[in-house]
Amino acid sequence: MKRRICINEIADYSKGQQINGDDLLADGKYDYLNGGINPSGKWSDYNVEGGTVTISEGGNSSGYVNYMNSPFWCGAHCYYLYNVKGNTRYLYYALKSQQDKLMGIRSGACMPNIKKSDLGKFEVWFDTDINEQVKVIEVLEKVENIIQARKRQLEAFDQLIKARFVEMFGDPELNPMGWEQVTLNDVCSSIVRGPFGSALKKEFFVEPDETTYKVYEQKHAIQKSASIGTYYITEEKYQELKRFECLPGDILMSCSGTMGELYQLPDGCEKGVINQALCKFTLNERILPICFLVYMKQTIGNLETKGSGIQNIAAVSYVKQMPINLPPMDVQNEFEQFVHQVDKSKVVDIKAA
Questions:
Q1: If you write DSSP's letter for every residue of 279-325 in order, what string do you get?
Q2: pLDDT at position 181 over 90
Q3: Are 210 and 235 in contact (CB under 8 A)?
Q4: What is the C-alpha to C-alpha distance for residues 297 and 158, in angstroms, rounded to an integer?
Q5: What is the pLDDT of residue 269?
Q6: What is the pLDDT averaged over residues 11-39?
Q7: Axis-axis angle for helices 329-352, 289-299 (nearest 10)
Q8: Cβ 225 vs Cβ 214: under 8 Å
């Protein structure tokens, strides 16, 4: 029988134990999951068994649902579910389908989080028939396998672009081509970090209509989509936050928790503002967007961060002074044409599949 049921009726849940980010091990055996979307690093021990559903508790990814196949160390910004009444994998799919709603119950402006009591009261559609759960799992796992196969195909194309970049531009760290070295600030007309969390509290959000403006969040950069998201503000609030306006062509970068994810807003996207978890780059005529994006992806590990729990980019002033190698425009154009050809191949490959 399928019915709406609270999480606390079908599972127990708890947060893990914090480990300082500086203490994580490069050669650790177990993943360290501290909220966010992906593990933050490795550790020598585990505190939660594999086959466990997790829900990010804090940061701008709070509400993100994950399934950990292997034993892992759960941090203090992550809930793990146990003593599940039914199939754990089924519960994962049930919660994953409600992920956007889960993200909607978080509170806090500067550092969003999901309170334990609110999580327990969260309702999800749940079929209590074990046999029906197994049927659903079989169907969804087949779909998931197809999706993962498509992702691997797209990743292969992305690796081709990265390889061509290194072939044409060389190692960004070594600059073997001797290109002019400038700063990010030199190739941007503006670099802006989002407003303080208090400037975009949940009470400022309204239902969307033809007069409202979108609030772009960290998940837009992470999921590479401008169409997701449900937060909007009024014209009055938009004018107040005009400095944080983002337009088609601007590049968003995630700055908290899951850091360094980049996404260029496409033509036709909704006009809006960025929230506190994003940094916005508006490029000038000195660099093409694709060159900027690939270069940043190649060097993103150099970002200086702070915070032992949910890490954040230290300061926008640091980002502005990050070095970047600047090839001549004819070389940039050649690389852009190569990427366009690869993109066409992606479309052909997907249609053929």
A1: EEEEE-TTS-HHHHHHHHHHHGGG--EE-SSS-EES-HHHHHT-EEE
A2: yes
A3: no
A4: 11
A5: 95
A6: 91
A7: 80
A8: no
Distance CA 279, CA 218 (A): 9
Whether 238 has a pLDDT exceeding 50, the answer reads yes
In the chain, domain spans: 2-126, 129-179+327-353, 180-323
pLDDT one-digit tens code per residue, 191-206: 999 998 778 888 899 9
Question: What does CATH list as the number for 180-323?
Answer: 3.90.220.20
Q: For the purposes of burial, counting CB atoms within 10 Å of the CB of 124, is it exposed (0-12), middle (13-18) or buried (19 or more)?
A: middle
pLDDT value of position 311 = 55
Residue 290 has a CB neighbour count (10 Å cut-off) of 19
What pLDDT, on a 0 to 100 scale, did the predictor assign at position 44?
95
Same CATH topology for 2-126 and 180-323? yes
Give the integer Cα–Cα distance in Å for 184 and 215.
25
The 10 Å CB-count burial string (b at 16+, else e) for 136-175 is bbeebeeeeeeeeeeeeeeeeeeeebeebbeeebbebeee
Q: Please report the pLDDT score of residue 110 as a whole number.
A: 61
Q: Which CATH number fits domain 2-126: 1.20.1250.20, 3.90.220.20, 1.20.59.10, 2.40.50.100?
A: 3.90.220.20
Task: Give yes or no for residue 11 having a pLDDT over 50.
Answer: yes
Identify the weakest region by mean pLDDT among 27-41, 69-83, 336-350: 336-350
CA distance 120 to 101: 14
Could you tell me which residues are beta bridge partners of residue 317? none
Full-model pTM: 0.68
The gap between the terminal CA atoms of the chain, to the nearest Å, is 37
